[in-house]
Amino acid sequence: SFMKVSIACPTFEYYGRGVEVLDDMFRTIANQTLKDLEVVVSDHSKIDVIKDFCEENVYNLDIKYFRNENGRGNPSINTNNAIDNCSGEIIKIFQQDDFFYDTEAVEKMYNALSNSDASWLVCGAVHTRDDGHTFFNPMYPRWDDKIITEAEHNFIGGVSVTTIKKEVKVRYDADLRMLLDVDFYYHTMLEYGMPIFYRDTLVCNRVRDDNTLMAEVTPEEVQEEFDFCKKKYDL
Questions:
Q1: pLDDT at residue 211, as a whole number
Q2: What is the CA radius of gyration of the chain?
Q3: What's the chain's average pLDDT?
Q4: Closest by Cα among 132, 232, 222, 217 to 184
Q5: Is there a contact between 39 and 63 (Cβ–Cβ < 8 Å)?
Q6: Where are the beta strands (DSSP E) in the chain?
Q7: How confident is the model at residue 144 (pLDDT cuts 50, 70, 90)?
Q8: What average pLDDT does the segment 156-178 reach?
Q9: What is the pLDDT, as a whole number, of residue 210?
Q10: What is the pLDDT of residue 215?
Q11: Helix (H, G, I), strand (E, B) or coil at 130
Q12: What is the pLDDT of residues 80-126, one digit of tens each?
């Protein structure tokens, strides 16, 4: 049976804070006005804390949990596995440390997409450094053709602003780590046309100053990924 909305949520240990950040997301899902939804968790963890948390299901959500042994540590592979296990008409893609900013977010995205010929939607986001006590830098998505060729041209934002219809077959590129989001936007635009640019702040992104992954990334590595994308799209 089709649900209206699936929330695709790739997870991992998240430096020991996996359950803590997921709890924030699940709480904001439980508070949504649209209730016809499922949460599909694809878990790259080696330990059971996230699995146990999903089984406890303190917010009484419709959770489908999958332990994913495949491509452990590769966010694209894990996100794709979450998407592939979704049954909703509309799939909201959510990074584990982000959460809804608006209790009507799912309803707004669902209504906008289901009443449109567009195949996907990107929404506005705010940011927090202190786990949602204060918010800053609201960002409203817009397109820039250089998104796939040059740094600082991603005016859409991160993965969690993305919602797709089930028909969208584009997936995240497992060869990319830093640019997996912009590659997904560009690829989906080529295959399905422009998204709905939904100018309302629906999600909150955590800004991670302690993100060990990004701290290790060099400008050369980022440039390598841009070169990979240029070749991929023959630009």
A1: 52
A2: 17
A3: 94
A4: 232
A5: yes
A6: 5-11, 37-43, 63-67, 90-93, 99-100, 120-128, 136-139, 162-165, 196-206
A7: very high
A8: 96
A9: 55
A10: 60
A11: coil
A12: 999 999 999 999 999 999 999 999 999 999 999 999 999 999 999 99
pLDDT in tens, 52-73: 999 999 999 999 999 999 999 9
- DSSP letter for each residue of 83-128: HHT--SSEEEE--TT-EESSTTHHHHHHHHHHTSS-SEEEEEEEEE
- What single-letter amino acid sits at 44? H
Rounded alpha-carbon distances, angstroms, from residue 62 to 50, 56, 87: 15, 12, 12
Sequence letter at residue 47:
I
Rounded to whole angstroms, how far apart are CA atoms 17 and 6?
24
Q: How far separated are the first and last CA of the chain, in Å rounded? A: 42
The CA distance from 114 to 136, in Å, is: 30
How far is residue 163's CA from residue 152's CA, in Å, rounded to a whole number? 22
User: Residue 28 burial (CB < 10 Å; 0-12/13-18/19+)?
Assistant: buried
CA 189 to chain centroid, in Å, comes to 17
Quote the CA–CA distance of 195 and 186 in Å, as a whole number: 11
Could you tell me whether strands 196-206 and 120-128 are parallel, antiparallel, or unpaired per DSSP bridges? parallel
Q: How far apart are CA 75 and CA 108, in angstroms?
A: 27
Share of the chain residues as helix, strand and coil, in percent rounded to the nearest 5: 35, 25, 45
Which pair of tokens denotes residue 136?
A: 């800053």
Statement: residue 192 has pLDDT above 60: yes
Which of 199, 231, 213 lies closest to 15, judged by CA?
213
